[in-house]
Amino acid sequence: MKKTNCEVNDALSIISGKWKPAILFTLISNGSKRFNELERLINGITPRMLAKELKELENNQIVKRTQYETIPLKVTYEMTEYGMSLKDILIKLHEWGINHNRLYK
C-alpha cells in the first residue's frame, strides 16, 4: 500500500484551533481591526490568547501587523494578500457550519 502525504493536515496546523478561525473570519468579514476591536468582536477570547494567535498568524504571513508611530501607539491587524487566499475556504466553512447547526441542533 502506498503512503500519501496529506497537505490538508499542514494547512489545518496553521489555521486550526479554538480561536484562529474566528480571528481570520473576523478580519476577512470586517477588514483591518485594532487589537481591542478584535477582542470585542470575538466572544470569549482573552487578550493573552488573542496576542498569541495573532503572533502565530503573523509568523505564518497570514495576518499583517501595522504599527503607527502615534501617541497613543496605534496597531492594526489585517489579512495579507496570501492570507486572503483563505477567504473562499473560510466562507464555505462558515456556511457549512450554519447548515450543520440548522440540521443537527
UniProtKB/TrEMBL annotation:
GO molecular function, one term: DNA binding
Location of the HTH hxlR-type domain: 6-105
Lineage: Bacteria, Bacillati, Mycoplasmatota, Mollicutes, Acholeplasmatales
This protein's UniProt keywords: DNA-binding, Transcription, Transcription regulation
PANTHER family: HTH-TYPE TRANSCRIPTIONAL ACTIVATOR HXLR, TRANSCRIPTIONAL REGULATOR, MARR FAMILY
Gene3D superfamilies: Winged helix-like DNA-binding domain superfamily/Winged helix DNA-binding domain
Source taxon at top rank: Bacteria
Membrane-spanning residues: none
Gene that this polypeptide is encoded by: ytcD
InterPro entries named in the record: HTH_HxlR, WH-like_DNA-bd_sf, WH_DNA-bd_sf
Pfam family, one: HxlR
Protein name: Uncharacterized HTH-type transcriptional regulator ytcD
